[in-house]
Amino acid sequence: MGRGAGRVLLIAMALLLALHTRPASALTKSYLVMASQRPASWSDLLTQITSQFRILYTFEPINGIGLQIDTVFVPDLKLLTGILVIEDKLRQVSTTHSWGFLGLKGSDGETANEWNNVPNSGEGVIIANVDTGVSPISPSFRDDGSLPALSKSRWRGECEASPGCNIKLIGARLFNEGIKAMNKENGGVNGQQLNETDLNSPWDYVGHGTHTLSTAGGGFVANVGAFGHGTGTAKGGSPRAHVASYKACFVPGCSDLDILMAILTAVADGVQVLSLSLGAPATDYVSDMMAIGTAFAVTQEVVVVAAAGNSGPVAGSVTNVAPWMLTVGASTMDRIFPADVVTGAKTITGQSLSNSTLPANEPIAMISGENANSAGQSVANSVLCLPGSLDPAKVAGKIVVCKGARGRAAKGQVVKQAGGVGMVLCNDAASGASIITDPHIIPTAHCSYSQCQELFNYLQSTGSPMGYIKTRDAEVGVKPSPVMAAFSSRGPNTITPQILKPDITAPGVGVIAAVSQEVSPTGLVSDGRRVPYSVMTGTSMACPHVAGIAGLLRARYPKWGPPMIYSAIMTTATTEANDNTRIRDETGSAATPFSYGSGHVDPVRALDPGLVYDTTTHDYANFICSLRPTDTQGLLPVSLPLPLSILWTLLARVFHDTNSNPFECSHGANHPEDLNYPSISVACLPHSGSVVTVKRRVMNVGGGAASYTASIMQPAGVTVTVNPSTLVFDGENAEEEKHFTVTLQVHNAEEAAGYVFGSMEWSDGNHRVRSPIVATTKCV
């Protein structure tokens, strides 16, 4: 710390001493505390405010600590010069066929040495997740003797699991100080008490972490299915990668402080790809600990892939929106697990993984939850089959029709406890056609809203409704696929609308992968089943698909930085389904880049992208500069408010100009839409006359000389032009870059009043390098 900064801190401490005679409030919370310059001693600094504090973590790479302190002293803490304080928050955790659907399969679709001729299948790459832990005994993480051991210089991590790790599963670590502090502060977390076994072990007692890690990098395991369905060979996207687990999530959720420490530890350990199936509502980057931690990770060349969230189809619900993360939405694949509901001559088809134990083709009495409410319970509760709402006298021996897509497996438990023998789970209008395959504890069929209208008409048309449930094996080749899942969170990006989010979509519905046998497949205590593989659904499942593909790219192009890998994945994505039509949306509305980003991931094309957008640390630092408020106080153009300054320093720390001077914000204008990003999003377009021009550059990685020509799909009401429209690479420089501009001008303000969508594509006749374009005259 410089002498001037030290004097300022001492003065601030002296001024604060007079404030600390007041008693503590006995309300403690946890915070991330960051400093623009690292104090000589955090403890000495904090003691000037109060002796009642606890340092949970020390975050050396970002000049920070995790701190538990009485809330009465937080205002004093914030008064210290160069100090940023962010409250700890809770986040939630947000396959046998999916890889074949994505085109990664050999001639027989199964064998390890025919993984679509992908070099090494991710061998040598370290993929990790921050999640609910791992089951080290899963067959997906066994050491089959084929992988070489990593040197100590390549892998610096640890294994805290017992039984231990191996050459495949090289690390398993636990981070729980934040969640323990939350538990102590609130007498529980999210209304739940922590399970001591879960809290103190790197093992997975939820199932989520094992599922996501095996999807990203699990090895080949033959004859795997879920409850007898979808049998095939389980494997991750990089089946020969090494994998590591960083447990920071538990049954009630994940502390931001634990997540941050896990991310920084993974970077220090040597992880190359980090999969984060975690989320919380988007906030400013300077108050988002995941954004802060992943910003540091990217400066250390770690690829970061994150889930978009499961709050769709609400507009602006997408999370993990920082441009240094690759954000993944969820879509269907061409496989379903059908379950038929037969009533007389009418059959409607839903989905389920529960094997029907009802007599085959023998109708059973049916009743709607609406007509099955118990005494003292409202119809509103019994319609949803909530606990205690069903009357056993009305339900016993019958198939119950329940509404609502939340708590799906729990509804089956309620029906079973009331004596019901089966359940039809009907979507409400908001859930539409979004059907989720679950391993229900009783014979069940989950059906769409439209199909259930026919079923409810039947129930109301007769005094003695009868029917039965018939399950079938998985069907493959379903068209159209993919379809955007209704639950997948949507854009626009509410923090910086100039950065399109999500970036990409991948399979996230009905994904089969490894799970922990420490927990039931439904997560219900009453469910005594234990299985090694099961099905899960969510953007949590889509995220590791892309992380696995990132591992393939990292193995093929070891010198590529994270943004080049992001670009290869984004610009080669497709917006077409397998019936040669545009990707649809389960909601019935048109699917747009706000749902699928650049499109559906295509790993085969991503391995040969032709051109890539390389976003440097310099670019990211200038992006942070662009977020500064208008200078109304006559300050220097390089000035930033403290929170942005700290984040900017984090990003710019590793960047120096040609004179070895620290990076500074440029004195000219910085615009967030000028970040060299593989997609283009422009808000606040002038209604007429004026134009907005954004800058981009691309690098030729296709090898040799090449000439690329641009083509534009024009957004409604907006004219887009590219200059130059042809890029010629001589092939003499392996990292040759070309600059170009994209100009947008409104020609019909009425059409462009809302968000409009188009695209730009560079092609050399062999490669197609596509970027979505989003524009609006709205100033958001």
From TrEMBL:
Keyword check for Cell division: no
Domain called Subtilisin-like protease fibronectin type-III: residue spans: 674-774
Domain PA: 389-455
Keyword Membrane belongs to the record: no
Keywords, sorted A to Z: Hydrolase, Protease, Serine protease, Signal
Active site, per annotation: 131 (charge relay system), 208 (charge relay system), 540 (charge relay system)
GO molecular function terms noted in the UniProt entry: serine-type endopeptidase activity
Family matches, as CDD domains: PA_subtilisin_like, Peptidases_S8_3
One GO term of the biological process aspect: proteolysis
Domain Peptidase S8/S53 stretches: 122-599
Signal peptide: 1-26
Family, as annotated: Belongs to the peptidase S8 family.
Protein name listed in UniProt: Subtilisin-like protease
Organism of this sequence: Aegilops tauschii subsp. strangulata (Goatgrass)
Species lineage: Eukaryota, Viridiplantae, Streptophyta, Embryophyta, Tracheophyta
